[in-house]
Amino acid sequence: MFDIDGTLLHAGGAGRRAIARVFRERYGHGEMFDGVRFHGMTDRAIVRGGLERVGAPVDDATIDAICETYLVALAEEVHRTEGFRVFAGVETLLDALAGRDALAIGLGTGNLREGARVKLERAGIAHHFPFGGFGCDHEHRPTIVRIAAERGAARLGVPLDACRVVVIGDTPLDVDAARAIGADCVAVTTGGIDAATLAGAGATRVFDDFASDGVLAALVGA
Ligand SMILES: [Mg+2]
Questions:
Q1: Distance 33 CA to ligand 1 centre (A)
Q2: Which of 18, 38, 59, 129 is most buried, taking the most CB atoms under 10 A from its CB?
Q3: Ligand 1 centre from 208 Cα, in Å?
Q4: Sign of torsion over alpha carbons 193, 166, 40, 73
Q5: How do residues 140-163 score in pLDDT, each as one tens digit?
């Protein structure tokens, strides 16, 4: 299960601009996100944090409404951002993983499902991810990856207990989520978090990027 931001791609700050814009339109200012690191945070948790900082009531209906507006803003920002890029080795790795027996490739991401789709379609890799756990499934990443793992096992038609689950991410929160569900975690430093930090968090393996030697073997033992 792949994380998206910092792992597969860099969306050029589109998500940050979109959420700041929604808060500016709704509450008159969007600066409450300045200096806040979104690394590894789920979309609903980001919205909740924004509401707390702006002093607005925090409830599920408000978070739902903001998420809906955010997705419209995100689509616009993702389409026009110039800083968008897919990291080295991603397409080659996904092609190498495609079509293998007994292997399910999905997402374990804090992005809302529709936000994930928008980013992955711009990247041209959405077709590689037929299932996942998303930021609309839950606010907490360990639950998101557990849901994703259950969906992956269901696709394979086997019990989850019989699967080797690998969470692939770029932050200690990805590593924590993997450990919480007893999964391996293959981490990459493309999101800006260094190898020592990711290894210290308990990542099974850490690579500079997916073009590095040994990535495919770390994922599928091939
Ligand atoms: Mg990430």
A1: 17
A2: 18
A3: 14
A4: positive
A5: 999 999 999 999 999 999 999 999
